[in-house]
Structure formats: C-alpha cells, structure tokens
Write a structure and sequence with these properties.
Layout: H1 2-14, H2 21-43, E1 45-50, E2 58-62, E3 67-74, H3 78-81, E4 83-90, E5 105-109, E6 114-119, H4 120-130, E7 133-136, E8 140-146, H5 147-153, E9 157-160
Parallel strand pairs: 3-5
Antiparallel strand pairs: 1-2, 2-3, 4-8, 5-6, 6-9, 7-8
Length: 164
C-alpha cells in the first residue's frame, strides 16, 4: 500500500505547481536519485552521499580517490520555454545556487529521461558572457539561460537515462 501512496504522491507533485519548499525539495530529490547510477558510470565513481545544504547535491568518489560534487536540477518549464533557470540568490538577496555552490558540475534534467552535464566553471563563464535575463520570483532570483545557445557555444554533454 505504501508504494501506491508514494507513486500517487509523486504523480501529484509532478502534475501541479510546486508551491512549498518541501514539495520542491521532494521533487528535486526524485531527480537526485535518478542521477546516481548514470553519474557513477559516466565518471567511473562511487556515490558517497547527498548534501542537504547549499554546497552541492551529490558527492561521488573516483577510483583514484578524487571527489566530484554535483548540483542536480530539473526545470519544469524547460519543455515550454527552451530555457533553464540557474538560481543565484533568494528573494531576500541571500546568495545561494550558483553563487555559493561547491559543485564541480551542474546536471540539468531536461525531461524525466534526458539530462545534460556542464562544469560549474563553464556555466559561470557562459552566464558572464551571455548576460542572460534575470528573473525574480517570490522565492528566488536566477538567470534565464537559453539552453540551445548554451549547448551550441559551451561544453555541454547530453545523455539519456535509458542508456544506463
């Protein structure tokens, strides 16, 4: 019975506006879980943990003991707009997101099955050069980055979950 309730709750979260922080966090955690196996295979690394603060989302360790940190993002509006949202502060101007992350890579889920990887420094460079529109919502501020422009001009790698 619990799995039916869980599946139902996930369906509801994925098909309504994510209003509360807790709803948004739960939705994000679904994609963090989806990312683990593909990232282990792409980087030949072992999943270590997920971080519950601003520093990063997922931590992996390679065979040669290097740590690789990831931010995992799912932009619900990507399919309608072709843009990705890159948060840089809260609505009260407290730095977070790309301003404070310690992640080495951003992993953007463009759908339930497709995701892209870009090094954080490369994403910061793109934002600096492209000067994207800044959007302010009730909860956060971020850059609106046109994905195709990012992909065509910067080092972005695309993957499909089904390949793993």
């Amino acid at each position: 019975m619990k799995s039916i309730i869980y599946i139902f709750n996930v369906y509801i979260i994925m098909n309504q506006k994510l209003v509360t922080f807790k709803q948004r966090q739960k939705y994000g955690e679904l994609f963090e879980k989806k990312a683990v196996i593909p990232l282990e295979k792409i980087f030949n690394a072992k999943f270590i943990n997920n971080c519950k603060d601003y520093r990063y989302d997922l931590l992996f360790r390679t065979l040669d003991k290097r740590e690789i940190k990831f931010e995992i993002k799912r932009d619900c509006k990507y399919n309608a707009t072709g843009n990705i949202f890159v948060q840089f502060s809260t609505c009260d101007d407290i730095d977070n997101g790309i301003s404070t992350t310690e992640a080495d890579f951003y992993c953007f889920f463009l759908s339930d099955k497709a995701f892209s990887l870009i090094e954080t420094n490369e994403l910061k460079k793109a934002i600096d050069e492209l000067k994207p529109l800044i959007k302010t919502t009730a909860k956060e501020k971020g850059y609106i980055v046109h994905y195709e422009t990012l992909k065509n001009n910067y080092n972005v790698r695309e993957f499909n979950i089904n390949d793993f």
